[in-house]
Amino acid sequence: MAAYVINGKVESSVVVLPEYDLYIMVEADDLLVSQPFARSSVQASGSVYYAYPPKLGGAALQSRLQLIDLIDNRTSGFYRYGAACVGLYNLIRGRHLAFIGHGIRIWDALAYFPLLHRFGISAAYHIGTTGLDLIASSNHDFIEEACGIISETEKITFSRLNPDCNLVISK
Fold first, then answer.
1. CATH of the domain at 136
2. Residue 148 lies inside a defined structural domain of this protein
3. DSSP string computed for 64-115
């Protein structure tokens, strides 16, 4: 994955998924893909892809416990396989109701920012000194609840993903 950022805006990106024989590139209003794909519709209680580092501690660990409870109560469960890149791909394909990236590396998701917008998926994010928190879904209530858990527990503020605005980076 690669993202081209100019003056704080993700101007273009490319995602290569060799196991799917697929590349996806977004530049301005152009979307290029190596093979066409259609989104499937997700059920209201679909699954969530939840990416987090293996050694969460303190407030982040408390957030994880509350997020898993939210996922268990509001969805059909969660997946945590391989790279966040595949979880985001399955979100834009409609195979997941939501994506939660909790304390992940920024390069694990930044290239998807223009794709999320392109596919009409709302997202909120926090970029800090220790990584990226990203909540993405077409279900706005789920985004609000998940962001609320992390915000309250870890004392951070989320920004709405908007391709017309500069990325907000907290220190």
1. 3.40.190.80
2. yes
3. HHHHHHHHHHHSS-EE--S-HHHHHHHHHTTS-SEEEEEEE-GGGTGGGHHH
104 located within any domain: yes
Give 61's Cβ-side CA count (13 Å radius). Answer: 5
Residues of the chain whose pLDDT is less than 70?
Answer: 42-44
Put the strands of the sheet holding 30-33 in their side by side order.
Answer: 2-6, 9-17, 22-27, 30-33
Number of domains observed in the structure of the chain: 1
- The verdict on residue 117 lying in a domain is yes
Please report whether residue 171 resides in a domain: no
Helices and strands, number each (H, E), in the chain: 4, 10
Contact 123, 143 (CB under 8 A): yes
Q: What is the pLDDT of residues 57-102, one digit of tens each?
A: 899 999 999 999 999 999 999 988 778 999 999 999 999 999 999 9
